Amino acid sequence: MFCYQCEQTAKGTGCDKMGVCGKQPDVSDLQDLVVYALTGLGQAAVAAKAEGKAVPLDTGRFFAKALFSTLTNVNFDPADFKPLIEETVARREALAKVLAASLPEGPATFRPALDLAGLTRQGAEHGLKNIPETNPDILSLKHTLIFGLKGVAAYADHAAILGQEDPAVYEFLYQGLADTFTTDKDLGAWVALVLKCGEVNLRTMELLDAANTGAYGHPVPTEVPLGAKAGKAILVSGHDLKDLKALLEQTAGLGINIYTHGEMLPAHGYPELKKHPHFYGHYGTAWQNQHKEFAAFPGAILMTTNCIQRPADSYLGNIFTTGLVGWPGATHVKNGEFGPVIEKAKAMPGFAADTDQGTVMTGFARNAIMSVAGTVIDAVKAGKIKHFFLVAGCDGAKPGRNYYTEFVEKAPADTIVLTLACGKFRFFDKKLGDIGGIPRLLDMGQCNDAYSAIQVAVALAKAFECGVNDLPLSMILSWYEQKAVAILLTLLHLGIKNMRLGPTLPAFLTPNVLNYLVANYDIKPISTPEEDLKAILG
Ligand code: SF4
Ligand code: SF3
């Protein structure tokens, strides 16, 4: 195995014995084989397009799902990858049959082994290091593209689940993976292609925004209790709002309270979700604290999308996976049929008594913020708001991530902190007060809602008749997995400069690629909160 797609990669260089995330070598090799097989399907789809032949829309949907399943902390179950590889090859063969041209030797002619052990061996021969490329900087960009495409695939899958699709997004997924096996583009062309991935991700996030707000309404500012209510309980984690909605409907009137964990917190802001009276509150913090927090939860736990960690034996029997999530030994429920989860919750003790642990606010997505845009703009013009910080991105276990807590604590009282994604759990319950009625800490949603933050920045730039880079706005970003890579590429595509990124820089960027980013985008690693605040505020 060799994997260096996430921020916690071993020694900051790569996991080669077993994943720091718990990924076993066989799963890593199988995931590499999924990507290799998808590359072949991508080549076939690109050839079909060149010949003017249609690629079925559901092949795009499948492609996104299969690629999403290789994202960090999504699926750890080796058995789940065999059918994905087989279906990829079957779809490729179906396309190959109607093509006039024959496909090149390699991923497009690959024949999968018949058993899991054989597939695992094949995967070991088709990892990241086996991609044809002699220039290390181009190889770095090819890897960046693969990781960015995984992020796009995740968002495309979320959007498609709620009926929002754009064939152009799937076409880029095909083309992007197929391009990693070409050797005729120079460094400049590769930089352009990686930025194009950011552009396609923006379109994908736009679809997802339309999907979520179309199905559940625009989020509204909502106060969410952090304590517990006496009674039976189910905890829902991940990003999938459709799963949550189905669970809320299936538990209506049963006396079971539904709690969110991690990235599901912003779900409380959606009118069509919050209307359910038993959608009670938020429990715990970010994904990396599952072990402690899940072990203490007295009800059933449902994991949608990512980010699952190895369940402790104490709660392996209470945790359920759905969608693309998998863990060997954890019960998987399909098609939004949550009966087993509900039965488990009924059999468990639930919370014995009410506990009050305060509340947090969420629901400040683009619509909510735009509705008070006038007040915000006046406050900036009157000098009451001096600066905005977007402190956003993923959380993780590294101690260096305390930077983000301290940064928010030390941000001056005349500044506003916008946040999204799971990195916010480092500071989401801080009482930062308000500026003339505008809360100083505004939770815009999940990482899936980065589109909201971009729209707000663009609207502010319009109001002040300047570019986004000229706004009193600084981006302090934390990354962990590949959705964050895709978002970062979107911000680069939009020409955003001066971003601060941490807790460490991606291991897959070579010094030359990094230098390019520094020279053209002034992107920098985080230093200390004091120094960064001083540098930003002058
Ligand atoms: Fe290592 Fe991250 Fe890959 Fe897991 S996902 S194997 S921690 S680089
Ligand atoms: Fe978090 Fe996984 Fe990235 Fe959705 S839940 S932001 S790490």
Automatic annotation (TrEMBL):
One GO biological process term: response to hydrogen peroxide
InterPro entries: HCP/CODH, Hydroxylam_reduct, Prismane-like_a/b-sand, Prismane-like_sf, Prismane_a-bundle
SUPFAM superfamilies documented for this protein: Prismane protein-like
GO cellular component annotations of the record: cytoplasm
Residues bound to [4Fe-4S] cluster: 3, 6, 15, 21
Molecular function as annotated in GO: 4 iron, 4 sulfur cluster binding; hydroxylamine reductase activity; metal ion binding; peroxidase activity
Primary localisation category: cytoplasm
Cofactor remark: Binds 1 [4Fe-4S] cluster. Binds 1 hybrid [4Fe-2O-2S] cluster.
Reactions mediated catalytically: A + NH4(+) + H2O = hydroxylamine + AH2 + H(+)
EC assignment: 1.7.99.1
Listed NCBIfam families: hybrid_clust, PRK05290.1
Family recorded in the similarity comment: Belongs to the HCP family.
UniProt function note: Catalyzes the reduction of hydroxylamine to form NH(3) and H(2)O.
Protein name: Hydroxylamine reductase
Native source species: Solidesulfovibrio carbinoliphilus subsp. oakridgensis
Highest classification ranks of the organism: Bacteria, Pseudomonadati, Thermodesulfobacteriota, Desulfovibrionia, Desulfovibrionales
